[in-house]
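Task: sequence design from structure.
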């Protein structure tokens, strides 16, 4: 089965940086899409960024454009989220997720799938001085 494990969260000062990792197993190498999501207390879950493994195409939420960068290493089946110029508003639990059946269809290869059915356990990011 598909398994996703996040790491890299922690405490950062405003203006600082963190890099999150999402290590995936059970996916078809080079044929998947992974999204990063976050949820802060009392707020709805927000999609932060997505990446398509095959060509590296990306998408970002407006709130993080210019500050966060998503990337992938297909050899390691790992997706990263480089977070720069962090703000207190970025404080949240961050999750990576994927659609486990992404590889099945040859005509549905979006950067951000409409459905996600496999999630990691999350990693906590706290931005505070």
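Answer:
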């Amino acid at each position: 089965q598909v398994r996703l494990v996040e790491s890299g969260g922690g405490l950062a000062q405003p203006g600082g940086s963190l890099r999150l990792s999402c290590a995936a197993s059970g996916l078809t190498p080079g044929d998947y899409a992974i999204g990063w999501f976050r949820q802060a207390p009392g707020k709805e879950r927000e999609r932060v960024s997505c990446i398509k493994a095959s060509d590296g195409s990306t998408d970002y939420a407006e709130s993080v454009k210019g500050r966060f960068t998503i990337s992938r290493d297909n050899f390691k089946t790992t997706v990263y989220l480089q977070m720069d110029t962090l703000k207190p508003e970025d404080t949240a639990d961050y999750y990576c997720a994927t659609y486990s059946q992404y590889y099945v269809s040859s005509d549905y290869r979006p950067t951000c799938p409409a459905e996600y059915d496999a999630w990691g356990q999350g990693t906590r990011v706290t931005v505070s001085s």
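The CA atoms of residues 101 and 111 lie 14 Å apart.
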